[in-house]
Design a protein that fits this description.
The chain is α+β, with helices and mostly antiparallel strands. The protein has helices at residues 3-14, 30-41, 59-70, 88-99, 117-128, 146-158, 175-186, 204-215, 233-244, 262-273, 291-296, and strands at 18-19, 26-27, 47-48, 55-56, 76-77, 84-85, 105-106, 113-114, 134-135, 142-143, 163-164, 171-172, 192-193, 200-201, 221-222, 229-230, 250-251, 258-259, 279-280, 287-288. It is globular, with a radius of gyration of 25 Å. Among the domains are: 178-244, Classic Zinc Finger (Double Stranded RNA Binding Domain, 2-Layer Sandwich); 250-296, Double Stranded RNA Binding Domain.
Length: 297
């Protein structure tokens, strides 16, 4: 056997010799495997942004973050919407997931599909491997990634809503929820249709809830204090807070009215103090502040 053939055989033996014990990842060098472990499974992110709380395992990701988030450098524009990206691969990913609905990354253990490779890794770690090393210090929540735990803290315990609608006062803790809001409320895009009735929505989860509630009668979440049942865990929490705990965080500055949700306070101010009448009859000049009144009149 020639020297060249020996070298080729040696290289072939070395390629992807190091295998991850938590997923299907394989690497040619141990250093690459260690980086994979730190990044994906251990959540070690040593590169930190000095302008915000962003952290990442790789230096070039930090550079991209600073360019796009803090310097506003976004050279790649989507020709189907207003989305802009700092890198071409982000634009391609955006088009594939948002406009084409392509989900290339599929779980080998179940039917889960996603357009993000990292989301698939998180799914496998959390659902199939049970790797949830990051624990919430305020409740029993556990996560496979530190970033997910941070998101949980912001959403559940701190109520931080960083994503704001540019067309109304809607705010949310999740970017995906903002997109659903804009699609459904402002653009009228409701691609998820019920096969049993005329119900349409921009939110796939809302369609599932509608099916369970309206057509299947499934109410798996039950109140421990009364007979209340609901299809949604979030609705049960609202019920507990408002009915049994009497929590009303949002107070009107013009009267004694208090509300659990900010949207309820906004509606109260518009109706009671501003006299706003957003609902107009299409057949005459009648206007009202309540949609139900317009329907029944």
């Amino acid at each position: 056997m020639s020297t060249i053939e020996n070298n080729i055989e040696s290289i072939q033996r070395e390629v992807k010799h190091h295998k991850c014990t938590h997923c299907d990842y394989q690497a040619a060098y141990r250093s690459m495997l260690n980086r994979h472990m730190n990044n994906v499974h251990l959540g070690i992110k040593k590169h930190k942004c000095t302008l915000c709380d962003y952290q990442t395992a790789q230096k070039h990701y930090l550079k991209n973050h600073i360019n796009s988030k803090h310097l506003g450098i976004k050279h790649h524009n989507c020709n189907l919407c207003d989305y802009q990206a700092s890198q071409k691969r982000y634009l391609t990913k955006h088009i594939n997931s948002i406009h084409l609905g392509i989900k290339n990354h599929k779980c080998i253990h179940c039917d889960y599909q996603t357009n993000e490779k990292n989301n698939l890794r998180m799914h496998i770690d959390g659902v199939h491997l049970g790797l949830r090393n990051h624990k919430c210090d305020q409740c029993d929540y556990r996560s496979s990634q530190k970033s997910t735990l941070t998101e949980h803290l912001n959403i559940v315990h701190l109520g931080i809503k960083n994503h704001k609608c540019s067309q109304c006062e809607f705010q949310t803790t999740r970017r995906s929820r903002l997109k659903i809001h804009i699609d459904g409320v402002h653009l009228g895009i409701r691609n998820h249709k019920c096969t049993q009735c005329d119900f349409q929505t921009a939110d796939r989860n809302e369609l599932q809830t509608h099916l369970e509630d309206a057509h299947l009668g499934m109410k798996n979440h039950r109140c421990s204090q009364c007979d209340y049942q609901t299809t949604q865990k979030s609705a049960l929490k609202v019920h507990m807070d408002t009915v049994h705990l009497g929590i009303k965080k949002h107070k009107c500055k013009q009267c004694d009215y208090q509300a659990y949700q900010k949207s309820s306070l906004t509606r109260h101010i518009n109706v009671v103090h501003l006299g706003t009448k957003d609902h107009k009859c299409s057949h005459c000049d009648y206007q009202t502040s309540h949609k139900g009144t317009l329907k029944n009149t």
